[in-house]
Amino acid sequence: MAKHDRYDARLDGLVVERRTEFAAELAGHLSEDDRARLADELHADPAAAASLRYERAHTGFTRVIMATAEDVARLAERS
Question: Which helix H or strand E contains 21, and what residues bound it?
């Protein structure tokens, strides 16, 4: 089975669900509001996420982004 661990426009067009996980290095450093905002920003531009994978679902794919300190720094620079 192919590994789906980087951005793929074809697969992204089949995404039916999204999920955001947070790296251990971010534990305790983000409020729930910050987590929600970060998740929205990461999923708005999935190609730029430091860590992304697609998981097969019954009707398409789930896009899973692992939010990292690198992502937080990159998004802070854009603001």
Answer: strand 15-22
pLDDT of residue 42: 96
Joined together, the tokens standing for residue 52 give 């992304």
Q: Exposure pattern of 4-27 as b/e (b: 16+ CB <10 Å)?
A: beebbeebeeeeeeeebebeeebe
Q: What is the signed CA dihedral for 3, 41, 31, 33, rounded to 10 degrees?
A: -130
Beta-carbon count within 10 A of 45 CB? 12
Q: Which residues lie below 8 Å from residue 52, measured CB to CB, with a gap of 6+?
A: 5, 6, 7, 46, 63, 64, 65, 66
pLDDT in tens, 21-75: 999 999 888 899 999 999 999 999 999 999 999 999 999 999 999 999 999 999 8
